[in-house]
Amino acid sequence: MPLSSEIGSGDDKCGAVRPLTRHDVDAHAAMIEVETSAELAGILDPSVNLCVWRRPERTEITALASRVAGSLGSRSRFVFERDDGAMYQAVTDFLPAAAWDVDRRAASAWRDDVLSICEVFADCVEAAAAMVVLEGPSEATCPRFHVDRVGIRMLVTYSGPGTEWLEESDVDRRWLGAAGHGLPDDQNGVLRDGAKIRSLAPFSVALFKGEAWPGAERRGVVHRSPDPCGAPRVLLRVDALSPDE
After folding, report:
1. Model-level pTM?
2. Rounded CA gap, 180 and 183, in Å?
3. Could you tell me which of 109, 110, 137 has the C-alpha nearest to residue 228?
4. What is the pLDDT of residues 28-53, one digit of tens each?
5. What number of other Cβ atoms are within 10 A of residue 72's Cβ?
6. Can you spell out the DSSP letters for 19-48?
7. What class is the 5-11+21-240 domain?
8. Domain boundaries in the chain?
9. Could you give the 3-state DSSP secondary structure of residue 58?
10. Cβ(94)–Cβ(112) below 8 Å
11. Most buried in the list 30, 44, 89, 238, measured by CB within 10 Å?
12. What does the pLDDT look like over 58-90, one tens digit per residue?
């Protein structure tokens, strides 16, 4: 079970990403890496709280995302609905207009990838509709380790550093949130001695369990936004919508 990348937790926040070796994970909050989109359904296993499909990077898409990151502003969003014939146009309009001006072929590939990702998400969690958000933050939007109050969330980094996360053995959940008193993560007690901060590889598709997922209470993935270190960052986020939303 190969795992995602790892970065050091020292002062060199922008240090090079190094590959992880195989290692054991907590049986009640395991991370698994899969080889196909269909295997992302592994997130439904009660013992798994993070499932990653590490895809080959599409350089034409990542290059385009990097070029137009600044035109995203804070975020762009739309509601994905299964079996809605208007979704193709919705995703076309969802991408920044600058993307179509810069490289229409790469923009078409990006649109198709977003649509495919939404369909995979809907199939995995049996969601009739999902909120899809694309953002290009210039700084870490959630710089402290935390747990999302959602069921299952999908993340894909198209440009820049990937989301950072902690294995269960590396985190002390007692100091998450307000208990950390606003202190940096290396001072607030969240990181256990020798903790390794891990990072999702760009273009990987990750499914996170949050605290709202049945059976995942107090076991949601502990993660944070990385410092972009001056690099353009573009992140896709997909969340299931309940029927009344």
Report:
1. 0.83
2. 6
3. 137
4. 568 999 999 999 999 999 999 999 99
5. 22
6. PPPP----TTSEEEEESSSGGGGGGGSTTE
7. mainly beta
8. 5-11+21-240
9. coil
10. no
11. 238
12. 999 999 999 999 888 667 899 999 878 899 999
